[in-house]
Specification:
9-stranded mixed beta sheet; 19 strands; alpha/beta
Amino acid sequence: MTDLEQKYASLNVPRYTSYPTAPHFSDAVTPSLYGDWLESIPSDTPLSLYLHVPFCQEMCHYCGCNTKATRKMAPVLAYVELMLKEIDLVLERLGTGREVHHIHWGGGTPSLVPRDAFLKIVDKLKTHFVFSEDIEHAIELDPRTVGDYLAETLKMAGITRTSLGVQDFDEDVQKQIGRIQPLETVEKAVAALRNVGLNDINFDLMYGLPGQSEKTIRDTVEYTKALAPGRVALFGYAHVPWFKKHQQLIKEENLPNTNERIRLSDVSREALVDAGYDVIGLDHFALPTDEMAVALKQGRLRRNFQGYTTDTADTLIGFGCSSIGFLPQGYIQTTPSAREWERMLSEDTLPIKKGIEVDRVDLCRAEIIMQLMTYYQVDYALIAEQHGLPMSEFSSIPASLAEMINDGVVILNDTHLTVTDAGRRYVRVVASVFDTYLANQQARHSVAV
């Protein structure tokens, strides 16, 4: 392990898909306040929508999502009816006819929703929102559930992009993480999607899983290259058994140690680059012709709760248990409790559990962090000026960065901060320098690499 790796790789820092980060949300943001926020959004504001479906056929050992296993359709159908009501409650305060540029279905496994129920939700959205001509309508999929019938359903619903949770193709690794899906299963899923014209496909891969080796990683990337998804998201497994109890099924002694984890990260990235993918920020990759790679080159790439995205809308409306949204006034999160979510909707109450109101300082720091996480450089004085803040807001930054400068992690030229090639793997640590909430953070985050 190098000195840099020893110092920075094991630090626990947020992933910064938002700022302020979710652990700082509180009950100060109430359903009533959220309703007021919705009403005050200008009518010409472009929107994005997120729909969370917290059901899977079975629980994978590594999963960190808010979901639960079910083999019955009754709870899924009941959930759909409640989501339809939630949409109505939001529309009462937001109004109809708003333009939507991006829709993302997450979970869980949202494709478990039966065809008629799935199309019912989509029809509701189409009836009350205006879908832009170039809308991206994306959904996360479990390859084990994808066949010709589902592919046809997704096509009927207007889905334009699919994301397959692959993780690793190695049989032993799959056994240890409780997700058996042979290469042939993924091949059939990809073929079914492409047969109906759904050619914009993402793969999710992971490193840091039990049983992984350089060989399993390289083999997984070779299979990925052969299937040619346009984008790949590469995530480090976050082992948080104190938070996700089912992760206790993964034996810690089978997890790679810090040195091994770093090496697996390096091998994964090297293999994906060798396979022809451009590096996109911290953990995404895209073929050079993909819109994400183009957006990076043109400076249009963003980062939000779905990771790196071409979605440029500043307002995200979330539906379903535990969904997170962002409005000009701040972040909101619906309750993660299915029982409470149902109760609040039955009382005609927007099912908001918590959130955080933001001011221009938060927005400024959020922009700085996003620029660092996306482009590895930022002129924080310029961003401060754009938000009407004095430079005194960042007077402590040079001192806070001094050690990283000495270590060759960053270069600071006046107020222009650049993360070096050697420091890019620690960009989350660099970003944390601008996080004024982190000192009061009680939650435990995943390691930086």
